[in-house]
Amino acid sequence: MFDFNIVTTWIDMFLRQTLGLGDFLSILIECILVGVGILVGYAMLAIVLIFMERKVCAYFQCRLGPMRVGPWGVFQVFADVLKMLIKEIFFVDKADKLLYLVAPFLVIVASVGTFSFLPWNNGAVVLDFNVGIFLLTAVSSIGVVGIFMAGWGSNNKYGVVSAMRGAVQLISYEMSLGLCLITAVILTGTMQVSGIVEAQTGPWNWLIFRGHIPAVIAFVVFLVAGNAEANRGPFDLAEAESELTAGYHTEYSGMGFGFYYLAEYLNLFVISGIATTVFLGGWAPVNIGIDAFDSVMNYIPGIVWFLGKAFAVVWLLMWVRWTFPRLRIDQILTLEWKYLMPLCLLNLVLMTIIVAFGWHF
Amino acid sequence: MKLNNIVFDKSSFAAEMAKLKNAGNFDYLVTIVGEDFGEEGLGCIYILENTDTNERVSVKMIAEKIGEDHVIPTVYNLWKSADLLEREVYDFFGIKFLGHPDMRRLYLRSDFNGYPFRKDFDADPKKNPLLLTDEPQSDYTVEYNLDSEGRLTSTPHRLFDDDDFVVNIGPQHPSTHGVLRLQTILNGETVKKIYPHFGYIHRGIEKMCESYTYPQTLALTDRMDYLSAMMNRHALCGVIEEAMGIELSDRILYIRTIMDELQRLDSHLLYIGCCAQDLGALTAFLYSMRDREHVLNCMEETTGGRLIQNYYRIGGLQDDIDVNFVANVKALCNYIKPYFQEYMDVFGNNVIMQKRFMNVGFLSKEDAVSYGVTGASGRTSGWHNDIRKNHPYALYDKVEFDEITNEMCDSYGRYLIRIEEMKQSVRIIEQLIDNIPAGDFYIKQKPIIKVPEGQWYFSCEGSRGEIGVYLDSKGDKSPYRLKFRPMGLNHVAAMDQMMRGQKVADIITAGAALDFVIPDIDR
Fold it and tell me: Which residues form the NADH-quinone oxidoreductase subunit D domain (chain B) (predicted)?
């Protein structure tokens, strides 16, 4: 497999040796480069995802979706983004200005933060701590605060109801989300994102194959909880456009709203990305143990594998989104606390036993 | 039917009405018509139905005058539907109902001057200028009673407590299907009480009709319930034709029956779509909208309208059916039959949908009758209230179809009934479409239509209940009083009781499953 470290090392060498910069300057420049890279990737993915969502849902609904702007409507999202950028941001009377203004940034920070953990390729992991998975769940929790602050701060009764819903739902589902990830960690023995992927290279080594029954359960529960975490249907309770108009972001306009919009789609991708990383092998190619086949597969770059798998999961989640009606708040909490959580705990025990006795592949 | 009003003595009115309800089993209050009878003064006509025999009677009551006030004892304690109906009469005529716990205006602003349906009402715009200020809202309502010396006393009642969390669902809300405002007291996510507010799209259609000639009044019907425009007009034409004694040709009856059923199909398709939409299942919504398009196309070729249907007129139809109508309708029937199962597959059988709909918006049969919740929404409580069966008009006594009822009493039952009713509509259409007889599509009328003196009431089975029209004629070329019985008013009236203790999200689903259209309520 192509190791992205070659590129990063080359840049580092270029800065330090060819240009002769010191530690501080070279690290600063590298950080800026990585930051710009992440933000550009974030924005581009958002555009792709929004376009994908519109087309996918259109085809589910016997429609064509956007067709007018550019061939097959490809420029529609660019036009929308442009519109969003130049729209006026106005303030709500009697809103809590500080909370109202800070909230969208918290949501976007959480989203970009988790986004930075994704392993794009062999050697292309931006944030790679030894407690990666823990840190990732911790960073993603910041979003709840943003949602709660937005609902509370915008002086809107729908917003308050939505904020309560959002907070209770996100906090609840983080439980099973975390437990599913820990189930995977038991199998790999590391919490480092790159280590988890590394452990999945090789024939039939994806966690979902290696961990068989508990891993499949964890994967399915992860998708359900992840869907809830990303606030998407059938768990879009906080937004609930037919009940609470738009919920916590009812009172936002322009890019204030745009941030929520971006974060929603990117959270979808982040959830898919984590599911891919942890259960489907991240950038690890399909290897079946036949050398000829495996070596061909290994020629395909890791980023293609990663994006391909992630988008397959995204598509799966969109399918769910556009098929199921919305649940009710008490049903959502029942599902989490009475079914998913106990299931996750049992699954955790099951996985521990399997790993302890070495019954996995 | 021509009304032969029973008149009770003022002192015994309340007791006699209770006797009618309890002994005579007249447990369904069809409507209360307020009227300014001129010399006799203000009064009401109560139309009642016995739900066992489907016999209807009407009671006339002239309001007692105490000083400047007109009063009638309330019947709210007998029929729950009287709650909003009496408020409507109070709003338009200023008749105060003694013992009614909530005498506020229903449609007009609370700071409106005068009572517009009184014949001596001064419509001078200076008296009621167009106000750009918010409507004043009070936390109190008032109840009127007579004290021992016969004087009118008023008792204030508090609507909200200090620590109530009140959320206005509407008037601008995506799921109230129009500009309905449900003032909801919430305890967390749980509903404590709902106060409905109407009138955001009140156009005074009944008042306008009093100054219009009969053919002119027809133009307003499709502005009420736009999803049962045909039936609205059928009811209005029907009452005028009955009053004038016009015999219609078979061709007219056939076409009217087919058109009514097409309209019902159109409305129910939108209904099942909206149920899905209000639950956030946009895909299922678009599936039914796709098929509704075919129904609209069929109607459009003949009537020229898709939503606003102006097809019936007094004495027949506006024009003959399109040459392709028969072929198109047959094609439609064949096209749509397999899709009923698809609606169930894509939405109706979904486990989340069933969890959201089952046991939500529970309404027992007794309450359904008491609130007058007609149509499919009432039939799910096991109440046989189909006007097509009980008081047949057009060809409904000749065609074979089943009245669909079930005993589920909840939103899911309402949904299932709609699916079954669409099958019955197709069945009715298929029986008629091949046999449309030759004949006149219009029985020629005099240029100026005058209706003989008397009072008539005629009702049709609209898309969401009984659409009735009350006509009081003094022999002029315009009606003395024309009153529509809105289908949705009773549905919304029942919502408070249905929703208490349920979740705020259930208001939306129960509202979607009840199926009301606001212009129909507001008129």
Answer: 278-446, 449-523
The tens-digit pLDDT sequence of chain A (361 residues) is 677 777 788 888 888 888 777 788 888 888 888 889 888 988 888 889 889 988 998 988 888 888 888 888 888 888 888 888 888 877 777 878 888 888 888 888 888 888 888 888 877 788 788 888 888 888 888 888 888 888 888 888 888 888 888 888 888 888 888 888 888 888 888 888 888 888 887 777 787 878 788 888 888 999 898 888 888 878 887 777 777 777 788 888 878 888 888 888 888 898 899 898 888 888 888 877 788 877 887 788 888 888 999 999 999 988 888 888 888 888 888 988 999 899 999 988 988 888 888 777 7
Query: Domains in chain B, start-ordered, CATH in brackets?
Result: 1-121+140-150 (3.30.460.80), 205-514 (1.10.645.10)
Q: What is the DSSP string of B241-276?
A: HHHHTPPPPHHHHHHHHHHHHHHHHHHHHHHHHHHH
- Distance, in angstroms, between B368 CA and closest chain A CA? 25
Residue among A60, A63, A329 minimizing CB distance to B505: A329
Model pTM above 0.80:
yes
By C-alpha distance, the chain A residue nearest B505 is: A243
In Å, how far is B282's CA from the nearest CA of chain A? 7
Give B-chain residues touching A328 at CB under 8 angstroms.
Answer: 355-356, 503, 505-506
Of A234, A242, A323, the CB nearest to B277: A242
Which CA distances in Å does A162 have to A112, A156, A239, A240? 23, 10, 7, 8
Contact A325 B284 (CB under 8 A): yes
ipTM (interface predicted TM): 0.79
Chain A partners within 8 Å of B280 (Cβ) = 233-234, 236, 240-242, 325-326
A149–chain B nearest CA distance, Å: 18
